[in-house]
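Same chain as my last thread, 257 residues:
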Amino acid sequence: MGLMYQIPVVTANQLTAEEVARLAQDRDTGQDSQAEMRMRLYDRQGRVRERTMTFLTRHEAGNTKDRILVRFTYPNDIRNTALLVWEHPDAEDERFLFLPALGRVRRITGAEKQESFVGSDLSYEDIGGRNVADYTYQFVEEDATWVAPDGAYYPAWRIEAVGKDQKMNYPRSVSTILKEQLVLVHADIYNHRDEQAKVFEVTRLDQISGIWTVTALVMVDKSEQTRTELETLSIEYNVGLTEADFSRRRLEMVPGQ
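reply #2:
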């Protein structure tokens, strides 16, 4: 995230699959952003629970200090639960989960990064981003097409990612990345038995302040027959967030107290 990479048209087809994955990860998403989001969790009977959250991000040149802070605002049983992510390009990302009911912070280890994020079908890795270097890549299809929910067609790549650590819960995925927008819009995610375990799909893509923004998505768990929908209610880019907004102290600071 953070910096925008321009792909020369004459060399676009000469990119390796790993280079495409890095381009998608490092696409332009502004210096920082502040969003309000709604999460809906559906169980196998179709019953739904709703949550709302704030989502803050900050990026710096060179992608050395990317930061994410997610804080739930509703309902009361999860209110003020927060996740802080410090991304590191050459080391394991650091993830901290604040549990207000216990008044403590729990560190999320690397082995837990594919575990469920607070009971949803999304993982900590889905929320905080994954390290490109943890996977190997190859093209499945270099001239694919993604059909958006509104019927529009977009040129895309389809890329297979295989985890270098085969102890991962989901060691393989096949992702669709738009060539012009550099946005990951679909992924088939496989378990250790190479069964399709999850499906990720972007359901709305908008250009906001000149930045391509995923404003609605869904993650479906095929085995559990559950799904999680995440919708952006509002978002602002380049609002002036600072390093202090992503500190351990800010993580544990309950708004209004």
